[in-house]
Amino acid sequence: MTELLPGKNAVIYGGGGAIGGAVARVFAREGARVFIAGRTQPTLDAVARDITATGGTVETAQVDVFDQEAVEKHAAAVAATAGGIDIALNAVSIMHDQGTPLADLSLEEFLRPIDGFLRTLFITSKAVARHMGQERPGVILTLSEPGAKLAVGGILGHGVSAAGKEAFSRLLAAELAPRVRVVDIRPHAVVDAPAAGSYTRDLFTRSAAASGQSVQQFLEQGLAQGTLLKRLPTLAQIAETAAFLASDRAAAMTGTVANLSGGALVD
């Protein structure tokens, strides 16, 4: 079967996390040379071992994505080594509050996901964009959540940050066209993320406890039932979608959102 990403150079920030690691494994399987960066070397090493065990090519780097200078140096080093950057994904997670209404929500808690997610997205996008689109078109992939459009209480900071990420991606697509495509991926809560070490378990602990359920039950029996498909996306489904979007088969897509919410949102 023909690989989707033969000879492509892909940088994944948060590459040791649940989503970032899943995407890195699929990118490598599809022929990309993968560069994974993050703050925790052991988790990066675990992903790298999986990739090399299946014959893939991967390099790791311990990088704090809040350090703009460090991110820019890393991107420049990748470009110098590989001859450019074709694909970039920011899969960095920022732990934040969900479930607290305005009356009890502090300004700090409200701003934490907005500042955290958008700051890292700005830093990483700026660092990679200058190394894209010279010899062949580049692709920047971003991640958001249904909170960008949901009208529910208790997710003020989360929802605003998700909407900000989608707006950032759309506007960046206009700015970088035609040499770089920008596509946002909007999954719902990921059903198998807790088992993969994601912060999803901590994120939904309060809501699950309030409903008398475990986090896994809350995901499978609570959130999933609010979707048209009655199921939440898996890490594999997100990773496979990311590989398609990063490939030349999706060359006509930019400035848009790939909705993987299971029908929690119908665009």
Automatic annotation (TrEMBL):
<keyword id="KW-0560">Oxidoreductase</keyword>
<dbReference type="GO" id="GO:0016491">
    <property type="term" value="F:oxidoreductase activity"/>
</dbReference>
<dbReference type="InterPro" id="IPR002347">
    <property type="entry name" value="SDR_fam"/>
</dbReference>
<dbReference type="Pfam" id="PF13561">
    <property type="entry name" value="adh_short_C2"/>
</dbReference>
<comment type="similarity">
    <text>Belongs to the short-chain dehydrogenases/reductases (SDR) family.</text>
</comment>
<dbReference type="InterPro" id="IPR036291">
    <property type="entry name" value="NAD(P)-bd_dom_sf"/>
</dbReference>
<protein>
    <submittedName>
        <fullName>Short-chain dehydrogenase</fullName>
    </submittedName>
</protein>
